[in-house]
Amino acid sequence: MAYRPPAGAHPPEPARSSDSARSSALVHALLPLVRAEAAAEAPGAGAEPGDLEQAVWVRLLERPAAEPWPGDTARWVRDVVRAEARRARRTAARELPYGHEPAAGPESDPEGAALRTDRRQALRAAVGRTPGRCPLVLTAMLSPEDLTYREIAGELGMSQGSLGPLRSRCLGCLRRMLAAEVAAPELGGKER
Q1: Which of 167, 172, 135, 132 is nearest to 153 (CA)?
Q2: 21-60: per-residue pLDDT in tens?
Q3: Against a cut of 0.70, is the pTM above it?
Q4: Could you give the residue ranges of the DSSP H alpha helices within the chain?
Q5: More reliable by pLDDT, 67 or 146
Q6: What is Dmax (Cα atoms) for the chain?
Q7: How many other C-beta atoms can be found within 10 angstroms of the C-beta atom of residue 134?
Q8: Each residue of 64-101: b (16+ CB within 10 Å) or e?
């Protein structure tokens, strides 16, 4: 049994009504058919029925107003839904899941990476401004090689026993420098 759109489903002539009224009447008339066809084709296409419906409405709106309306509206809707379902199947066949890439973590956050880089640069600059042998000691402590006290003491030409107290003094100096550079929040959470 062929689908027969209700009266007024064919777009009226532009001279008699506006484009939006014509489109509204057409959408209202075709909505049940489009939904039924999209629901029938979606499972086989691996697509959501709503996505197929939306594609049909887009194709309908893309039609030039001067183009004559097809005689069999139901057939046109079925053809468009099936064409969109075929396109969805082809797209799904070409898409490959990311199997080897881990989910995005905090280290992949660009804003966080920029903030970490800024903090490292500020720390390195502050280490360079510390007095005496502190820049050498703190640079050795921040080394990515994770040097032991024995290795640091040997590199700096000092005894291992004196490295601990020197390290403590240098860290205290660094803390005071960084605390002075970063404004402490006032009561109530306001910053100076």
Answers
A1: 167
A2: 766 777 788 889 889 999 998 888 888 889 888 988 888 8
A3: no
A4: 19-45, 49-62, 73-94, 110-128, 134-141, 149-156, 160-181
A5: 146
A6: 99
A7: 20
A8: eeeeeeeeebbebbbebbbebbeebeeeeeeeeeeeee
